Every structure is written in structure tokens, then in C-alpha cells.
Amino acid sequence: MRSNRKPWGLRWRSSVWFITGGTTSCITTDLLAYSIIIPVLPFQLERLSYHEVSSLTGWLLFAYSVGLVLSTIPIAICSERYSSRRIPLLLGIIALLGSQVMFMEAPNFPVMALARVIQGISSSMVWIVGLALLCDTTPETSVGRQLGIAMTGLPLGLLVGSPAGGALYSRFGFRAPFIFGEICTLVDLFLRLLIIEKDVALKWGYGYDPSKPNVAAIDTSSAPVIHLTTLSTIPSIQAQKHLEMDTDELEYSMLSGKRQLIRDELPNEPRPSISQRSSILTSSPVRKPLPLLSVIGKLARSPRALVALTMSFVYGIVNSMQEPSLPLHLQDVWGYNSDQVGLVYLAALLPAMISSPVAGYIVDRQGPSYLTCICLLLTLPWWIVMTLRSSLPLFIFALAAQSFFVSGVISPVTTELAAEARNMPGVGYAHVYGAFNLAFGIGTAVGPVIGGQMYDHAKHGWTAVCCITAALIVICITLAFCYTGADPLLAKIMRQQYPLVVKKPDEESTSHSDAFTTD
């Protein structure tokens, strides 16, 4: 039987900050388990007498992405349909534990590849369900900040995993990095067991329900008011005019910038009681999940969503394309071993831990359009600098600088997808983050293969990797300039040049304020 006893620690276990910490832990553990073997894979494959090590390393990373991509759609659909976040997270951690043990004991390359496929499936559960859980719990005004904090788990996992993997492998052998990863995974399992979802907390009167409007907090000073009984004589409404609201009127409040409609009592319709009005005002609409094809159709018709997903795809390529080639580049040019490669990763990823939460804070206050373009523009020159072989300190500084700026793009991208989920009826957070995970997964699938093959077969392999990355960033700058944000930079510039032709998005919606139909 279901217990009616209030869960222990309900308030803090269901709080926004604890959920944010739990999501950060999920992402950190996932990336730690992913990256802890990257510095050691080439050396382990060489020890097992394999040839063309960079290519084989790329295929192992590709196997991870295959599991991630193939599992994304079913995980997103099931999570949104059954509205359960905790169970998939627990299943994901169990799959992660099993995959690490399998890889640690793998006698040959095919078993290694299978273990990476299973690890990719567990990663899908973390990214899709974890980010959806965080957005479920967080108020809309703080989504960017909390996502930015959670995204610090990405560089943090890479930060700990890469140097720890190199050091443990050098001193204790191939199994040591996996034992360390399993210990971290067990700690994360404990945190996942403590998480209480929003729906459970609301039954006990705790937590914030993003689907319920706070009527008292809504500013009606700029909201147009339409009296349906006098539609023939609709007055001109000034944007900042304060209107006195009759307490006998029934209010319908719409969030997300939509206009507020205040309806007079209709003829021959019984007047609702105060308690009935309160129930109407506080009840939240039930969002029925759409079929898969409908979700795909809605996302495909949204330029903002498509651009955000394109940048997720490019981010996956950029990060993963250097993974099989960077350790070998450092070894070939400067004679670095696995320990030293891990330290280079450490120096490169520290700045990324700062940029992600700062970017999330800025997005909540300024919007994503300026920040996305600035971060991408400042990322571009450092990839050109990294083609130089004259100075190792300059190379490490350039690697750290590009990591700082490219990590600043993730918070705007994830916030854009959350905004699109709120604006599309029937599309949930698990849907958009499933699409995000799919795009990122495809990028991480093709990236290592491209990077490994180019480094092995091109005359100047590392230079080719850097040039392709720079070209992809230029494409992202163009798309972000045209489409990122509710009011993209291109639209702002066009409005300055042609103020009578191009309108702001809110002005366009206000111009249709009299286009109401009644039953």
C-alpha cells in the first residue's frame, strides 16, 4: 500500500537548489565516466597490439554515441508520457555501473565497443530526464541560471575524468580509472535516491508549480482588456494605462507574455462563487503529450528550435573531434605522456566551469541573442591559434580560451529549448531535451570518427581538424545572428534601419489585439 506519511526532508529534497545539485551530479558523473578513459585509450590499444590507434579510439567514441542516439527517442517519449523522472534516472545509473564493469574486464575491442553502447544509453537518461526534471522544478525566470549551474557538470566531469584517468592508469594500471569511476557513480546513485519530484512535493504543499500562474504577481498595467459584452465599441488601449479591475469579473491569466483577458459576466450565465473563481485561477491546464511525428513537426517549424539543435550538433562535433587527436598531437609535437595529456585537459577545462553559470545568469536578464553571438565570435580565433606549433604555453592558453567561450553557448541553447517547450502545447521538456540529446549525440558520433581519420590520414591532420571546427563555428555565428532569441540581432538591426516596416515581436502580437472570436 502507498504510505501516507510525509517523506523525510521533503522541503530540501524537492527544492530547486537540491534538484539543481542532483542534476549537476548526474551530468558530472556521466562525463567523468565518459572521459576518464580518453587519455588512456590510445595507450591501452597500443598495449593490446592494435594498429591505427587514433581511428580505433574514434570508433569506440562512436559506439558510445550510437547507444546515445538510438535510445534518445524512446527515453524522451516514455519520460514525457508517464511523467516519471526518478525511475529513468535510477535505471540510467545502474546501466552506467554495468557498462564500466564490462569495459574494465573487456578482453577485446568488440566487447569494449558494446560497453560503450550501454554507457551511451545511460547517458541519454541523464541528459534527457535530468534536464527535464530541473525545468519541471525551476521557475521560468531562473531557468537559465539553474541550467547554467547544472551545465558546469559537463566541464567538471571532463576536468576530473581526464587527468584522473591518465594518473591512475600510469600508476595502477587499466582497471584503476574504472574503479574510481564506479565509486563516483555509487555516490551519484545515493543522491538520485534522495531526489523528490515536483508532483510528489506538491501533494504535500511544497515546491513551485511552473504551470500555475501567480495572479497577484501579474502586472496588469500594460495588459489589454477586452469587454466581450461591448465588442462593438472597443476603446483604444494605452500600453501603460492602469485599469481598475472589478472584483466581480472573472479573470483569465495567461503567462509567457500573452495578453490577459478579463471577461464580464455573460447574460443568463450563473455567477461563480469566490471559491469557484479561485479554483479556476489556480487550476493548471493538462498538457497532453503529442505523438512523435507531431512533436517533430512542431520543432521543425520553429527556427529558434532548429538553430538551437544545430548548435547542439556542432558543439558535439567540436568537442568530440579533438578527443582522439589531441592526445596524439601533444605526444607527436611535444612528447607528452598520458599524465601530461591529462594536465593539459585540466588547464583547458577550468575556465569552462566559470563560463557556464555566468552565461546562464546573463541569459535570464539579457536574453540569449547577444551572448550567443559574442561567445561564438570570441571562440573562433583561438582555433586558428591552436594550429601553431611554436609555443606550448600559447597552445594551452588557446585551448583554455576556446573552451571558456564555447561552454558559454550551452546555457543559451538549453534555455532556448526550454522556452520553446513552454510555447508549444503538447511539447514537453523531455521532448526538446531528447532532441537536444539526439543532435548532440549525432555530433559526438561523427566527430571522433572525422577527427581520428583526418589525424591519421591527412598530411597536417591537426590543422585540418582546427580548420573544419572554425568553419562550423562561422556557420553557427550566422544562424545565431539571424534566429537566436525571441528578438534576434538581425531583427533588431533591421528595425533600426527600417523602423516603419519591421516591428518587434510583441508589437506584432499587439497589433492583432482585436482579432478575437467568441462561441
UniProtKB/TrEMBL annotation:
Topology class, membrane: Multi-pass membrane protein
Regions annotated as coiled coil: none
GO molecular function: transmembrane transporter activity
Keywords linked to the UniProt accession: Membrane, Transmembrane, Transmembrane helix, Transport
Name of protein: MFS general substrate transporter
Domain Major facilitator superfamily (MFS) profile: 14-488
Cell location: Membrane
Superkingdom of origin: Eukaryota
UniProt cross-references to PROSITE patterns, sorted A to Z: MFS, PROKAR_LIPOPROTEIN
GO cellular component terms listed in the entry, alphabetical order: membrane
Primary localization: membrane
Ranges annotated as spanning the membrane: 16-38, 58-77, 89-107, 113-135, 147-170, 176-195, 342-363, 370-388, 394-415, 427-450, 462-486
Species annotation: Rhizopogon vinicolor AM-OR11-026
